Protein 1
Amino acid sequence: VRKKAEGDHTHEWVCYVRGPCDEDLSFIIDKVVFVLHSSFSEPNREVHTHPFVIYERGWGQFEIQIKIYLKG
């Protein structure tokens, strides 16, 4: 579902970690942490289940750091 742009938030985007054939990698991945720009509320997003994905909206470009924690 696409939402109408709100103020400066003109871009919708998704970021994910998945296998080459979209397979569930939760058998080897414990969690994924997406580190967003500090202007986001809660810039550190932890995802503990497949699919390891976040959806967000914003107004510009920035780098995302992705930390993948493997099961021990």
Note: DSSP finds no helices and five strands in the chain.
Protein 2
Amino acid sequence: MKISLVIPVYNYEKRLNEKVDFLLNYFGESRHDHEIIFANDGSTDGSMNILSKLKAPFKVIDLVTNHGKGAAVKRGISVASGDYIFFTDIDIPYHLSALDTAINHLKSGYEVVLGSRELPDSMSACTRPTDRRLGSKVFSFLANFILIDKVHDTQCGFKGFKKHAAKSIFKDVKSDGFIFDVELIYHAQKQGLKTILIPVHLIDDSESSVRFVRDSVVMAYHLLKLYIRLNTGAFYQFVRYGFMGIYNTLLNIAIFNLFIIASGISKGSW
């Protein structure tokens, strides 16, 4: 059994060596055959210089120009060869013991594992700012309201898949930015893949750049765009029926008034 861990990287030069050492130490004590795939998302600092010097078990992909976290994860997934494929963030925000929990579930028949900070057994070694927690809750509520079902922490940066599920889901994911998390959940549910939520232990939230006031409108906008794209047929059907309803109403008014003029039977204004 082999696992693949995909990690997107963007302008992380200052702490990149620290995280590389952390991963080497963790997997050095692990019994799992593994590969760690860094997907450089067009970093403009020295991140790629550091990544280019890495050897196995690391693989490095360079997107050259910045496209967004979703694009980097998709590229990493496309080259992953593990039986079980995971992705997380470069700051390694969650304790990697979640890998063992997830693998046990994948072995037992589940095809998709989603980390969730909202589960009762989830823990946190750091305090998440109120605006981040509020932003995450509001965004997940909206996502569940219009697109997905019963996933109340869509943006948790730990997700895992059986290989066939990862390849199947990500071939349909078109989003490149942060919204890709919602889209991959949507496709997993649409494809009927057996999914489970697992608790996570948050150990580092220092690199998150989400701010509720600043980003809430942008997040809602991208969510609406995603909804329209994924429901193009239903959206245009709604527009078509709306147009026909207005057209028929105006036509009926015109015919009614023509009868009034032709018959001379009228009372009051048109």
Note: The first helix runs from residue 13 to 28.
